[in-house]
Amino acid sequence: MNGTPPILLTSSVIAMDQSVCLKNPDSRVFHTLESIEKWMAIYPQGRYVLCDGSGFDFSNLVKVHFPGATIECISFTNSEKLVRELGKGYGEGEIIRYALKNSNFLKNSTWFIKCTAKLWVENFTECINSWNKNFLCHAFFSNVFSVKKTNLEYLDTRFYMTDKNFYLDNLSHVHTYIEGADSGGIEEKFLETLNNMNLEKYLFAVPPVVCGVGGGSGKYYKNSKIRQLKDLLRCRIVLGLNRYRRLFNID
């Protein structure tokens, strides 16, 4: 059972963070089901945990649309007040915490994959084949194609792979460190935590091709072949910098 990790899809049909553009619940349900359909094509043998933090139960919809899929649906209601104050990163942290305590799939697995609902990863097979048995994610580097100094700005928390105990020990409380918009979001807090640990080899050497609709923008991500090649080139350039090379999962 541990050989095939569950994919945790984090959802909030009711947008408690009012800064996001995609607020319509029907649209959020539609795009979540759309992402599951894409995942079924990419990874049909997978086990999925769909956890909604706004109390929405996907069970009946999943049975109707994906009768042969292995999908566990759970839900609870996040603190609307805290999500409004601290942002969707806080809400996502609470969703993952709830899922780890209440999902049978997650309880019986030593590692899991997290992806934000409404999204999927086209090169998932390549990503999972690079698993380092600890933690893997993507990151954003600024000024890669500039004469200015390249900087690691934040981690991409839309999609990552993690050993369950590593997450519980090091990342499960990171969302509680968010103090407001000026303190940085969950992406910056993840980076701060891993920097403080001096963790190495936690970045994908090949960028995940994340597709779908971003809740913040309400629009589909643009992942043309040119964009993908540019992202891969950006990654290769950063790999050539001695100060960042140790962060990438390469031999």
Descriptive key words:
6-stranded mixed β-sheet, two-stranded antiparallel ribbon, Spore Coat Polysaccharide Biosynthesis Protein SpsA, Chain A, globular, 10 helices, 251 residues, single chain, alpha/beta
Short description:
The chain has 251 residues and is of the alpha/beta class.
Written overview of the protein:
It is a single chain. The chain is of the alpha/beta class and 251 residues long. The chain has one domain (7-245): Spore Coat Polysaccharide Biosynthesis Protein SpsA, Chain A (Alpha-Beta Complex), CATH 3.90.550. Helix content is 37%, strand content 20%. It contains ten helices and eight strands. It has helices at residues 25-42, 59-65, 80-86, 88-102, 104-107, 124-128, 164-170, 186-197, 225-239, 242-245, and strands at 7-11, 47-52, 70-75, 111-116, 119-121, 135-142, 151-163, 210-212. The strands form two sheets. A six-stranded mixed β-sheet has the order 3-2-1-4-7-6. Strand 2, helix 2 (59-65) and strand 3 form a beta-alpha-beta unit. The longest helix is centred in the N-terminal third of the chain and has 18 residues, at 25-42. The model has no long low-confidence stretch (mean pLDDT 94).
Task: Give me the secondary-structure topology.
Elements: E1 7-11, H1 25-42, E2 47-52, H2 59-65, E3 70-75, H3 80-86, H4 88-102, H5 104-107, E4 111-116, E5 119-121, H6 124-128, E6 135-142, E7 151-163, H7 164-170, H8 186-197, E8 210-212, H9 225-239, H10 242-245
Parallel strand pairs: 1-2, 1-4, 2-3
Antiparallel strand pairs: 4-7, 5-8, 6-7
